Amino acid sequence: MKAVSKSKLWGRSRSLLGVILAGLLFAGCKGTPTQSESAARRDVAAVAGDYRPQGQRPPLPQLSANSTLADFLRYAMLNQPQIEAAYFNWLSSVERITQGRSLPDPRLTFQTDIANVITSVMPGLMQELPGPGKLGLRAEVASAESQAKYFGFETSVLQSAFAFKRAYYQLHFLSDKVRVNREILGLLADLEKIARVQNEVGKVTLQDVLRAQIEQDRLATEVANLEDSRNPLLAQFKAALGLMANQPDLPMPSRFESTPLDLTSDQLLAAAFARNPRLKAMEAEVRQADAALRLAYKARVPDFDVGVEADAKAAPVMVRPQFAMTLPIRRDKIAAIIAEAQAGKRSAEARLSAEQIQLAVEFADKSFMYREATRNLKLLTDSLLPKARQALDVARSGYSAGKVDFINLQEAERSLLEFELAAVDARTRRELVLAEVSLLIIGVPPPGAPILTTTSQPSPAATLPTEKK
User: Fold this and answer.
1) What does the DSSP 8-state code read for residue 445?
2) 127 has which bridge partners?
3) What are the sequence ranges of the domains in the chain?
4) How far is it, in rounded angstroms, from Cα 37 to Cα 41?
5) Which among 352, 358, 373, 355 is positioned nearest to 433, based on CA atoms?
6) Are 168 and 338 in contact (CB under 8 A)?
7) Long-range contacts of 67-70 (CB under 8 A, 24+ apart)
8) CA distance 354 to 144
9) DSSP class of 247
10) C-alpha–C-alpha distance, residues 469 and 464, integer Å
11) Contact partners, residue 176, CB within 8 Å, separation at least 6
12) What is the full DSSP assignment across 138-185?
């Protein structure tokens, strides 16, 4: 065989290298997105348009004391770092769908035979081909995971909205408690004046005056404690808006707004099972575990390697096709892979069942708390408070006439204070229960929440009307 000149060898090597590079470019073309991947990216685009358009935080609402509760909630949802962390966690999981359905990168190979001289130069290209169905199942696993991550993002949105509402209601009703205590404090000042007049005319002893002063001192301290408790609540209010400690404070809404939810409806529990994002996340985890189990069964299917090498030094050029496959003969290993996946699916199913049971328990408990607070509030406003005010008026008149002692007058005052504060507590509990059931149990999004009404992916979440402004 005639010797091949270096120039011809270099020319053949370049030609072969061009073919190989062309193959690499061809192999580097985009793959075909799966249906679930396309749906997930539509969901991302829908949420991003409202939550992070062009990857940037949208303009936040300009808040003032006259702003609506919906404006404050939207500010919190757009500015809360916990929500942002859950959002980007979801986005990263969507990118794993593309990674799961894509072929491994091709490998450029090079081989040469050397004796006294180089006798062969063989560049080549190899491609790993997973067994039939494996790429699709990997994409299914990643897709189900991305759904779970989305519902984790939705849960974070609702939790942040509840954190704001909780601080908002607690601050509002704290002001009511301070107001009630100050009113009773003013009443005690009047009672002290009456006691002094009675003491001056010799109808009562100085002990009544001292009792009035002691009660005033006690209430004044209680008012100071309540005012001081405003500071940690304001810190919670600020944190719920996603503000750092060194950022300026925002005003409290001046207008009180209740949570529009009728807890007497028989359909609410069914709505909670259909809409609760924690359940939806666990349903997605079950689908992920099911896809992982089907992928585990594919461990019995071999994977393949195909490629080609060409000897650039041979004349004519010699092409060597290559083919390899794995031999899944480790039965104990395959059985372990399948058993692991089966256990994972059963665990996911059990977690879902446990969450469904817990959701029903939470709903029953919160419904009772709502009914109890409503009954107590009705009793207080319709019966106990009017009678307590009347009893105090009677006791005051009787004391001025010398027919009632100061102990009975003081007891009437304390009863009125107790009932006034109990009414404030009942209102507070009722509002907190309504907010918790609406947001965390049923999953009704506030107005302007940056979440999907339905998902484009399989098993979409049932929807409920959002809260009205």
Assistant:
1) P
2) 306
3) 6-442
4) 6
5) 373
6) no
7) 67/253, 68/253, 68/255, 68/257, 68/469, 69/165, 69/168, 69/253, 69/255, 69/257, 70/446, 70/447, 70/448, 70/467, 70/469
8) 20
9) S
10) 15
11) 424, 427
12) HHHHHHHHHHHHHHHHHHHHHHHHHHHHHHHHHHHHHHHHHHHHHHHH
Closest among 149, 13, 161 to 79, alpha carbons compared:
161
What is the amino acid identity at position 457? Answer: Q
- Pairing state between β 318-325 and 304-311: antiparallel
Question: What does the block give as tokens for 411?
Answer: 């007891």
Q: Pick from 82, 99, 81, 84: which is nearest to 40 by CA? A: 99
For the chain, how far is it from start to end, CA to CA, in angstroms?
90
Residue 246 burial (C-beta neighbours within 10 Å; 0-12, 13-18, 19+): exposed
- Main-chain dihedrals φ then ψ at residue 322, nearest 5 degrees: -130, 145
437 to each of 162, 244, 464, how far by Cα in Å? 10, 28, 13
Please state whether 76 falls in left (phi above 0), alpha (psi between -120 and 50) or beta. Answer: alpha
> Can you tell me whether residue 80 is helix, strand or coil?
coil
* Paired tokens of 435: 């907010």
Q: What is the pLDDT of residue 261?
A: 81
* CATH superfamily, region 6-442: Outer membrane efflux proteins (OEP) (1.20.1600.10)
Inter-axis angle of helices 35-51 and 134-200, nearest 10:
30
Centre a 10 Å sphere on the Cβ of residue 135 and count the other Cβ atoms it contains: 19
Rounded Cα–Cα distance for residues 390 and 395 (Å): 9
Task: Look at residue 469 in the predicted model and tell me its pLDDT.
Answer: 37
194 Cβ contact partners less than 8 Å away, ≥ 6 residues apart:
396, 399, 400
d(CA 438, CA 272): 9
pLDDT the model gives residue 81: 96
CA separation for the pair 99, 110 (Å, rounded)? 27
User: Where does residue 29 fall: left (phi above 0), alpha (psi -120 to 50 degrees), or beta otherwise?
Assistant: beta
**What pLDDT score was predicted for residue 56?**
92
Given a cut of 50, the residues of the chain with pLDDT beneath it are 1-4, 9-10, 459-469
CA distance 331 to 97: 29
Q: Which region, left, alpha or beta, applies to residue 443 given φ > 0 means left and ψ of -120 to 50 means alpha? A: left
Tally of helices (H runs) and strands (E runs) in the chain: 11, 4
What's the pLDDT at 401?
85
The closest alpha carbon to 286, from 84, 151, 104, belongs to 151
